[in-house]
Amino acid sequence: MTNLIGIGPIAAGAYVATNMDNFILLAALLARYRRQSINVVAGYFTCMLILVIVGFGISEIANYVPIRYLGLLGVVPIYIGVAELVRIYRGKEETAVATEPSLDSNRRVFSTTLISQLGNGVDTILIIGILFADSTPATDTLIIFTLAAMAITFVLVAMYAVRHPTVGSLISRYAHHILPFILIIVGVYVLANTATDALPN
Prior knowledge:
Largest sheet: none
Mean pLDDT: 75
Number of strands: 0
Radius of gyration: 17 Å
Shape: globular
Low-confidence stretches: 93-103, 194-201
């Protein structure tokens, strides 16, 4: 039970760490298309659903990997976290910015959000896939609910940040310095081969 509870914060941390650029982009799109926010939100949720499905598909492929090697997937988030730290402290940190042309079609606003969010989703797919691959079916369900809750939270916080620019500025300024450490923690969790790992039959 303890490990079932523990996977929630790990999944939430992984989501936050790999989606901060998406969050900044989401807030920018909500600010740009204030009158069409429902289409922005729909595009964001659709993107997250696609990322989870693809990540789960990757985890299914990982089922063909010998069980003793699954824990080594933890190297991936650790590598991404360390690479982000190096980039930040070398002064090469980049912030996602919405540069799309002004669009007023509901379908185009939806498509703009979906495509731009998917463009930032590769690391999310990898980390989600690793979490699914390294967990039992019971924890997979908890991971899915956690990711859904985080997606909703991101939308609510982004809407709040649009109405309160100071909050959005603080998030943009400091979040990137914290998130690499979260990725490293996720990687260590996977490498630790905890009780939530898949067990051989």
